[in-house]
Amino acid sequence: MSSRSSSSISSKSSSSSCSSSSIVVVVAIIVVVVVVVVVVVVVVVVVVVVVVVVVVVVVVVVVVVVVVEEVVVVVVFVVVVVVVVVVVVVVVVVVVVVVVEVVVVVVVVIVVVVVVVVVVVVVVVVKVEVEVVVWECGSGVVVAVAVAAAAAAAVAVAAAAAAAVAAAVALVVVVVVV
């Protein structure tokens, strides 16, 4: 029974049923996944940049308001009002910074989760497709598929690293500005 099944497999592998469409499917899946990962990373980087710009603008506006109010401090009775306003502004800035940092951290966590999910999906899908290709075309094409998969994995890792670096830079900029 086992000799029959093995001969069936070998005849299937050596038959002419191998089509380039199977290999194209594997390569197409890898390319699509890599493009999705890169797009996700670009979107995250844009979000981080926008958040940083918003924080910088808020801080600059707060500084201008404080300076203007300090000029008005010449009038003695305004001192109390200025102090109250400055305290309120500082509290608002602190709350904004904390919220922004939480948002950045949440974005980074989402990116990590998305990248992990994408990698898992890639592994599962590519494994299935590679098995199909091996079944139809024999094991010779596995080398080419493995090279393509390795290239896709390298791009995904680089994209994840870029997202992590962008998030870290954003956090540093926020802390330094504040």
From TrEMBL:
On whether Methyltransferase is a keyword of this UniProt record, the answer is no
Report one GO cellular component.
Answer: membrane
Q: Which residues cross the membrane?
A: 21-41, 47-68, 75-98, 104-126, 133-152, 158-177
Can you name one GO molecular function term for this protein?
A: transmembrane transporter activity
Alphabetized InterPro entries for the sequence:
Acrflvin-R
Which of UniProt's keywords are assigned here?
Membrane, Transmembrane, Transmembrane helix
What's this protein's name?
ABC transmembrane type-1 domain-containing protein
Task: Tell me what organism the protein belongs to.
Answer: Dreissena polymorpha
**Which taxonomic lineage does the organism of this UniProt entry have?**
Eukaryota, Metazoa, Spiralia, Lophotrochozoa, Mollusca
